[in-house]
What we know:
single chain, alpha/beta, Cobalt-precorrin-4 Transmethylase, domain 1, Methyltransferase, Cobalt-precorrin-4 Transmethylase, Domain 2, 5-stranded parallel sheet, 5-stranded mixed sheet, globular
Amino acid sequence: MKVYFIGAGPGAADLITVRGANVLGQVEMLLYAGSLVSTEMLAYCHADAEIIDTAELDLEQQEACYRRAQAENLNVARLHSGDPAIYGATAEQMRRLEALGIDYEIIPGVSSFTAAAATIKAELTKPEVSQTIILTRVSGRASAVPDSEAIALLAAHRATMAIFLSGPHLKKIVADLRLHYPDSTPVALVYRASWAEERSLQSTLGQLLGEIKASDWNLTTMLLVGAALSKDIAAESRLYAQDYTHIFRVVKKRPGQPPGE
């Protein structure tokens, strides 16, 4: 008996990994968060699999499912939105599985922050602009953010930031970001990246709140911010430069080129 924590990806059913989809087709029991994971994912499941929506189950009730699967020698898939490593509430489940002596495996998935970047056709890092991505969120009822990781402090780095579940807190987030980022800094809001109802808006930090109705972005919204989002910055890596040599590509000297050049 084994439990597989599978990243379902950001929403679209075909953004699950091949490995994740294959495991869904093999296990006898599936636990999935129906409030976050598209039901289209269930098409990958074996026809006889027991499918349990955990949206209304607390952690003890979910543990009871694992215990029953252990007693009946059933393999289980636990399907989480995005990637299980990011805001997945998986660590507490792993601890309980370890206490029960149940083996488990983690299958990563596509995160919503990379899906959001794909939606707006942006690279989140650019040479000499930003080589750091900060993934964060604001405190909510389910999980508090440490004071040392407040957005107003993280913003001091002026790196690219991806702020999860930002919708209900946009006014405060923008105010905190403006303490360090210029008002001209590009920002993007992406709602339900890769879902059929996906929508996005690109603006600047100083103009954003004047261009939206905040309540329209309350749920499942990602906020991206940083100079790297700018289409006007033409920073290029040296990796593919004609004169850049590495172990896989040796630059041939041009006729008449002096030694050492």
